[in-house]
Amino acid sequence: VKFAVPFKKVKPAVHFGGKYLKDAVTMGVTPEYERIAEHRTFCGRFLSKEDVESISQVAVIGAEVARELYRNACPVGRNIYLFNAPYTIVGVLEKKGTDVSGENLDMRIYIPITSAVKRISNVDYIDGIYILPEENAPADDVLSEVRSLLLKRHAEEDFTVSRYEDVVNTRKQA
């Protein structure tokens, strides 16, 4: 496994200046997510290790979030509100469009995983882990290795290990 990135999807009210974004998706992630998702910042930076460790109230926003709330200006240093908590914008991502499942990646907001879990959700669990296998690693071997490791740590199978393609196909059929 090249990278393993935990994530927590949260659904706070997202707003700035009296305007609310009902379609925005907020995700708590770690800095490695930038590499797995192949994101590039248009301005500013992505999340850092320090942001995660200090449970910082910082955010990296998608291109459409920036356009909707800040009219295409680079809002680095300004606040975006998740519920009523101010998060300082540290970066804006380049436009990506939709993924294969039809989700608009430009309406996403990324915050440190620790902030999503502890500040917004107030829980002690994550929703999942994105895995980027080493190049040429057989997918079935990676899935088996991940399942085995999780089983050792959890002592029971209270999780699901899925391929991205299978998840997308299931979402398309729904």
Helix and strand topology:
Layout: E1 3-10, E2 14-16, E3 19-20, E4 25-29, H1 33-36, E5 41-44, H2 49-53, E6 58-61, H3 63-70, E7 79-82, E8 85-93, E9 108-112, H4 113-121, E10 128-132, H5 139-154, H6 164-173
Parallel strand pairs: 4-9, 6-8
Antiparallel strand pairs: 1-4, 1-10, 2-3, 2-7, 5-8, 6-9, 7-8
Word description of this protein:
Strands 1, 2, 3, 4, 5, 6, 7, 8, 9 and 10 form a ten-stranded mixed β-sheet that branches. The chain is an alpha+beta fold and 174 residues long. The chain is 30% helix and 28% strand.
Features:
174 residues, alpha+beta, 10-stranded mixed beta sheet, 6 helices, 28% strand
The tally of helices reads 6
DSSP E strands, number? 10
Q: Which stretches are low in confidence, meaning pLDDT under 50 for 5 or more residues running?
A: none
The ordered string of helix (H) and strand (E) elements is EEEEHEHEHEEEHEHH
Strand content: 25-35%
The biggest beta sheet reads: 10 strands, mixed
Distance between the termini: 30 Å
User: How confident overall, as mean pLDDT?
Assistant: 89
Tell me the helix content: 25-40%
Overall outline: globular
Estimated radius of gyration: 17 Å
User: What is the oligomer described by this structure?
Assistant: single chain
Report the structural category.
Answer: alpha+beta
